[in-house]
UniProtKB/TrEMBL annotation:
One of its GO terms (biological process) is methylation. This is carnosine N-methyltransferase. It comes from Coprinopsis marcescibilis (Agaric fungus). InterPro entries: CARME, SAM-dependent_MTases_sf. The lineage of its organism: Eukaryota, Fungi, Dikarya, Basidiomycota, Agaricomycotina. It holds the Pfam family CARME. One of its GO terms (molecular function) is carnosine N-methyltransferase activity. It comes from the Eukaryota.
Length: 415
């Protein structure tokens, strides 16, 4: 990359990062405004209907939702209160002018992180200690207004906290993470002692809020998570490095939608996080999160000073394969970086994140049979293939629930 292109890229990343921080800081105002719409709508119905709604305590529910939103907002602003950790100042905070703005779906792919081409600089460093973003020359700053798409990612992040770091998320983790860690422990059954396990290097690409990677490190393995979403990275940093007590934070993850609620408790459900002390890892464990795009860090353009080829004893992909634009490249990288005698453990659906994207990104959308055949062609032997029914960031109390029939397998390199 020329130095000019590099500067442009760094600047683009810096702006994106600032926008993510603005989104966090805009949450309260934005979400209160959405709740206020419900309040205004009461006055648009006939007076006698209003009286009936009043008798139900509907307004009181809206007031309680406001309180819950304030609590969420406080939590989210704590997460971004030290953005300098990533080498950024929260410089646009003063200018943040948040009003409800219409989402423009044309600006975004249909799912996933819209800024997939952005990654934090110095991706090869620990996500939580790096930071040398260049700062742009002073000029007129454009006001950033988070769209509903941006806010939706934040709302999803709150639910992701439940999945990864709350007692309520336990059942989901038992369905998703436990079969993977069980398979890992079984595959390396000869490594029972902490010293043996800590020599085994496990990679978790698309680590989300880091719990699967943490669980692996907690079992004594050396574990590296990889994640490229700023929203996830800021949030995982906060929970892993700035939280020291069980139940330290309170969230209301389900306050954003009043649909499919059996009762008001399901909307106003309080969730405490974390359910464990994130710092309680075995002394021998070696745990890190690396920021950046999986294909860039572990693929062909990987840092020559930090070779990846054949370096990983295990790779755990949980709800990750379908984030690929080109699944062939994902599988090829996994195959290349897996050590001889290593194991790849997968669990997830095939909700192709780039299907129907509006950003002209390519998207190869194989069915499960094709993915398995491709894995064989690339040089894997698949075993333990089975289907695991599981939810993903589910609200157990909702009248609506999605169940994925997720594909599980363990795979080794053909001998
Ligand atoms: C569906 S989520 C799954 C998160 C986590 N594994 C779990 O099971 O909760 C997929 C994650 O992969 C991340 N991701 C997607 N594409 C990525 C890429 N190319 N490099 C690194 N992370 C990526 C997303 O930001 C997101 O956090």
């Amino acid at each position: 990359m020329s130095s000019e292109a590099h500067t442009d890229h760094a600047e683009e990343e810096r702006v994106h990062f600032q926008n993510v921080i603005s989104t966090f800081n805009s949450y309260t105002q934005y979400t209160l405004a959405a709740n206020n719409r419900r309040r205004r709508d009461i006055y648009s119905v006939p007076l006698e209907d209003q009286a009936l709604l009043d008798a139900l305590g509907y307004k009181k529910k809206l007031d309680d939702a406001d309180e819950a939103i304030l609590v969420n907002g406080d939590f989210l602003s704590q997460i971004v209160s030290q953005p300098d950790l990533f080498g950024n100042d929260n410089e646009d905070e003063e200018e943040d002018d948040t009003t409800l703005s219409e989402d423009n779906p044309a600006n975004h792919p249909s799912h996933g992180e819209p800024s997939h081409s952005h990654r934090l600089a110095h991706a090869h460093e620990h996500a939580h200690s790096h930071g040398s973003h260049s700062h742009a020359a002073p000029g007129r700053k454009r006001k950033f207004r988070p769209t509903d798409f941006d806010m939706d990612k934040l709302r999803s992040t709150l639910k992701q906290f439940v999945r990864d770091w709350s007692e309520e998320g336990l059942s989901e983790r038992e369905h998703c993470y436990k079969p993977m860690t069980d398979a890992l422990v079984e595959y390396f059954s000869h490594a029972q002692m902490p010293d043996d396990r800590s020599k085994l290097r496990v990679l978790v690409p698309g680590a989300g809020l880091g719990r699967l990677a943490w669980d692996v490190a907690n079992l004594g393995f050396s574990c590296q998570g990889n994640e490229f979403s700023h929203c996830m990275l800021l949030s995982s940093f906060f929970i892993l490095n700035r939280t020291d007590q069980i139940g330290q934070h309170t969230l209301y993850p389900y306050v954003h939608s009043f649909s499919n609620a059996p009762n008001r408790n399901s909307i106003l459900k309080k969730v405490y996080i974390p359910d464990v002390r994130p710092s309680d890892l075995p002394p021998t464990s070696n745990f890190s999160l690396v920021a950046g795009d999986f294909e860039e860090i572990y693929g062909t353009k990987s840092d020559p000073d930090e070779p990846q080829s054949g370096q990983w004893n295990a790779i755990l992909t949980c709800f990750f394969l379908d984030t690929a634009k080109n699944i062939v490249n994902y599988l090829r990288i996994i195959h290349k970086i897996l050590a001889p005698g290593g194991v790849w453990i997968n669990l997830g659906p095939l909700l192709w994140h780039f299907e129907n994207n509006n950003t002209n990104d390519p998207s190869i959308e194989l069915d499960l049979e094709e993915v398995k055949m491709l894995a064989e062609q690339i040089g894997f032997d698949l075993s333990n293939t089975r289907t695991i029914d599981t939810t993903y960031t589910n609200n157990a109390d909702s009248m609506l629930g999605y169940v994925y029939h997720a594909a599980f397998w363990t795979a080794t390199k053909k001998g």
